[in-house]
Task: structure prediction
Amino acid sequence: MKLASVRVVTSDFERLIEFYQRLSGIEAARLADGFAEMRFEGATLAISSEHLIKLFNQGAATAAANRSAILEFEVQDVDAVFERMNACGATVVMPTTLMPWGNRSLLLRDPDGNLVNVFSRPAGQFKDSASR
Result:
């Protein structure tokens, strides 16, 4: 089995795509009206407009209702991401902080309130040299 993607359902499709494009520097692939994917190394973030859920799976998902999952992105320079996202007015839950296990971590909320962890591993443990 392979985890193919994580999908976030939103009532403000364009705003959520803009947030994740700014966060990652990756352009969203718009596959249909109200559906896009952002393809990262090893994982895909899918973004779906809530109207598609209502059309095909009424009641299966509700936009902006998540309070348990955290989207996590590994980067080389957490401080650069903090500066970029703070400058654009992103909601910072926790500024860049050194965690007890050695990661530098930044917690943000996306426009729908989903928690986003941007982190870097201690020197020598970084696994993805292509990340931003």
